[in-house]
Amino acid sequence: MLNASDNELITRTGPGTPMGALFRRFWIPALLASELPKPDGVPVAFGLLGEKLVAFRDSTGQVGVLEARCPHRHASLFWGRNEEGGLRCAYHGWKFDRAGACLDMPAEPVDSPYKDAVKAVAYETREAGGLIWVYMGPKDKRPEFPDFEWTLVGEDQRLVTKRLQLCNYLQNLEGEVDTAHVNFLHRELRSPDPSTTVPGLQRESRKPDQSILPPGNLARKQFLISETDFGLVAMARSEEPDDEYYWRMTPFILPSFTIIPSGIDEANTWTAIVPIDDHRAWGFTATWHHARPLDEAEVENVTGGGGVHVHVDPETFLPLANKANHYLIDRDLQVSQSFTGIFGVRNQDLAVQEDQDGTICRRDEEHLGVTDRGIVGTRRLLLKLAKDLQKGIDPPQVAHPRAFRVRSVTATVPRSLDPVELFASGQPQAADAQALGAAY
Amino acid sequence: MLNASDNELITRTGPGTPMGALFRRFWIPALLASELPKPDGVPVAFGLLGEKLVAFRDSTGQVGVLEARCPHRHASLFWGRNEEGGLRCAYHGWKFDRAGACLDMPAEPVDSPYKDAVKAVAYETREAGGLIWVYMGPKDKRPEFPDFEWTLVGEDQRLVTKRLQLCNYLQNLEGEVDTAHVNFLHRELRSPDPSTTVPGLQRESRKPDQSILPPGNLARKQFLISETDFGLVAMARSEEPDDEYYWRMTPFILPSFTIIPSGIDEANTWTAIVPIDDHRAWGFTATWHHARPLDEAEVENVTGGGGVHVHVDPETFLPLANKANHYLIDRDLQVSQSFTGIFGVRNQDLAVQEDQDGTICRRDEEHLGVTDRGIVGTRRLLLKLAKDLQKGIDPPQVAHPRAFRVRSVTATVPRSLDPVELFASGQPQAADAQALGAAY
Amino acid sequence: MLNASDNELITRTGPGTPMGALFRRFWIPALLASELPKPDGVPVAFGLLGEKLVAFRDSTGQVGVLEARCPHRHASLFWGRNEEGGLRCAYHGWKFDRAGACLDMPAEPVDSPYKDAVKAVAYETREAGGLIWVYMGPKDKRPEFPDFEWTLVGEDQRLVTKRLQLCNYLQNLEGEVDTAHVNFLHRELRSPDPSTTVPGLQRESRKPDQSILPPGNLARKQFLISETDFGLVAMARSEEPDDEYYWRMTPFILPSFTIIPSGIDEANTWTAIVPIDDHRAWGFTATWHHARPLDEAEVENVTGGGGVHVHVDPETFLPLANKANHYLIDRDLQVSQSFTGIFGVRNQDLAVQEDQDGTICRRDEEHLGVTDRGIVGTRRLLLKLAKDLQKGIDPPQVAHPRAFRVRSVTATVPRSLDPVELFASGQPQAADAQALGAAY
Questions:
Q1: What is the DSSP string of A52-102?
Q2: Which of C351, C361, C369 is closest, CB to CB, to A79?
């Protein structure tokens, strides 16, 4: 539970807000690189942190991100001509390069110095992992670019998708660090029957648990958190037969990224939720394997729309199953086959996340349980860093790009084993150790 | 005319408002029973008095109405599983019964007492007359359930429909107690010609008045009101030939119900308007005969969409003729056949009611006439009771369920007859007498 | 640049605002006359200066414009019966003539004096040039009706269209007086090739300039303004070979009208932008020739949708190319053929004008250039007159209807010629002289 004032603080990310200032200290993903396929191509208008922006790939192939409005009289640069190293406004021909410098004011007097005085608001960009990234904070505070493992592997080892999510970013982020919901929201009720099940619904059914939650049959879990140099790790542990523990580790990486735990040597999945404004966000999802190309089943999982990746309208990125069509819920399927009757892990998440008191949850009226420890830890960390920043204390987590070389795991191991040691015992599991807060 | 402050007070019914407090002292209709057709079936999400609610029929067949948001982290219980005596949230499996008690928190520790501490907001319900009713007020103030005659008769003696009305509830309620508008808004201009008229337009044409209101030809009426133990009765009386009076009596039953006057021994029609929020309301309409099954013509009138019942979209209950399509007005028909050119009594009402300064009428700028006595009386009564309630004085009208056994009449009788005596002279007219404020 | 307070003042035109008061001192166009085709026909509901209005053509053929809400209980008179010299409300039959007098209250007592006490808010109207005009200001301040030349010529000499523009009126008005944008926003990139170009795109390409703005090749212009007795004239002058000047003169006529400059003896085009509310406006465009019927090419230009007239939805007047469909921009066409890739001069204007910080431009954050002199002059004049009016000083420009007999010109003439003298030298150029502030 947050008081109403902290809830305001943690959910608002527009210009001038404390949480907006914290987001602006990190590199954040802005677009799929494929939205800007070629030099001098069509610009893209989009929103980020309450600002209206336009992105374009200039003649050299580098990407510029400018405030959408032309500094002159605020026509949208989206209508502009992308040509010869800059974006030229359609209204009067003022032209800006990707750094915001004005290259031309063709209707002003030839010798006018005005061109040197007017700048477009421009943000630095990077292209990595199939995404365009942007840094929107103070220039002298710009951190090194984070080397997420999935941005460093070969293109055939990675698949990245984007969606529009119609709620405040925090409702998604809380879902991502909330290990407890997986056994409910994403639960399958029957053993997969190839003739009747839908692709994607099998994914989370790692245990052969066919019940509709009969009393006592559900494994009770313990929930732990551990702060790290990239954010924190939320952990769930359950007692298994044969003197084993089942572990599920979810790294929360600042400012709003997570990694969904997978089995050792399985493909990993990274998520990001980036505010458009306080009521909408871009969700990015990257699935990758550190050591080999993604195989056919993994690609099917990404492109089939049934897992955490989701089918979207190609122009707006709105998921095809959405609030307007009740996420295509099938109430018969809900009775017999899946906990929700909604197809696909991401669609299930969207259904609950996009309406928690509407688009902004009233966290002063909720009732948290012991399962919510990861959520509580995430909120506390974000609030502490935002309040520190107001006092002039920079967030320490932006400093070390290697801190972001994180994976995550879920595994059943002997109770005698310390998971930190387990995942630190060899390569390539070293990255997993990082997920637990261990040093390399 | 109301001053702006009284207009605010009378139109706002959300949590914490004085008029909302008054509404919450009465049993109000919430849903058609047919929206919840079977035990453990699909829940229904809906709004009432500014609150977001979810209704479900539990395993025993009884109906629960809960605040839509789960007390845990405010996911909508609409996505929940309706199973084994309660509604289970899709997010983490918390389960609540129809009284709001938490039956299960499957991810919390097995011995946790937390389950007993967390309650869902739950409202008491009743099922009567084909409707689900709800009481949203203080438990110790709950009145007896009102025994409206139409809820007590056999199913073949009654037909009930529901519509979404896109304005403040009061604009509809004022229309229902406004006897004067019937001769204008619902006027037919020509004698019914079976080959050209549309079903439903004939209903209100009780007098063979074919004129387009030539000067002096319209019967001037007198308008009277009388307070009763259920609210008040608005009466219109006009002088008829042969030393007779034509009477039209409209009971207003608290908090927002009326009965449309019909001829003696004709079917009666009860209406209710229940706020969803301050700009939308549910309209319920029940037509019944106290002594016999509805006949074919009466059923046609209810199901044909041309009377006070109206054809609606089955999912949203939005009338098919609505503001977006200009209520399908036919301007040629308006010239030659009906006063409005709009088909159906209810559609005619909706056209004028859904735009009186938009969804909330500015009653500080209106100009009332002598015909508006019923409206003035209704407003005064509502304001007095709401203000009394703020001072701790309970509305007296909730006390006696038999007070609601009201019918209404329209009839032409000798001027020497006192209508109170007339309608009190025998059974089943006793109920009519009640409509005039007489004792049983 | 305006400070935020002046920007509020200049953009708000609802009842009670200073700029609204200024607009209300002028005759403004409200509807196409063709929207009210015949006596006792269907009324039209529409908005103007933040007021909801209804227009009707009464039995005599004259047009009434009333506040849309009936004075009684605020039902919309749009549903009313237009019959026998007045508009009769559909709710209770109250009837008003075009002056707002109440002709009938059929349900009130026959001898009631109430009818004489209740007036509908009514505005005076005129019909001229194919438009309905309205005066919404104080009756004792009503100016003479302006005799715009195009309202006085024969019907075959004139074509008038209307569109809905989805932004504050000022964003359009600024565009109309902004001569500088013509060479950019409306620029053609290639010589017209009949097999590939689209009609309408050729119109503004008066110079055979095929370049995509190579440095130095664009003629730099000088921008001048001159106040007149109808408003002001914005002028652009560029140096041409052979010791000539190219002149382009744009009259701004109070409160929000302009004339687009054309070559001598070409058809002229008048524009008006009239606020519906602060975020939407009606655009009217009239093309006429003072001396002869419009020829086939001119008619094609008006009706083809490619010039400053535009194809609209016949019911809503929303242009077919609009914000929702990105003005049908063709990015390939933008590279090779036109500066914007948007078809039609008006559509090009709409694209930039309908999003300058959204519907209301933040003029406190813009960066004006020397080309914006006409815009600066227009704003200053509007602000001065609105502020004067608050002090009780009437706008002088409303006094003389002959002041509105303006045309405009664009022409290349010897540098030695004074354009005022040039256009004053003979008939029919006398009107052009007026455009420059010269006396007849």
A1: EEEEEE-TTS-EEEEESB-TTT-BBGGGSEEETTEEE-TTT--EE-TTSBE
A2: C351
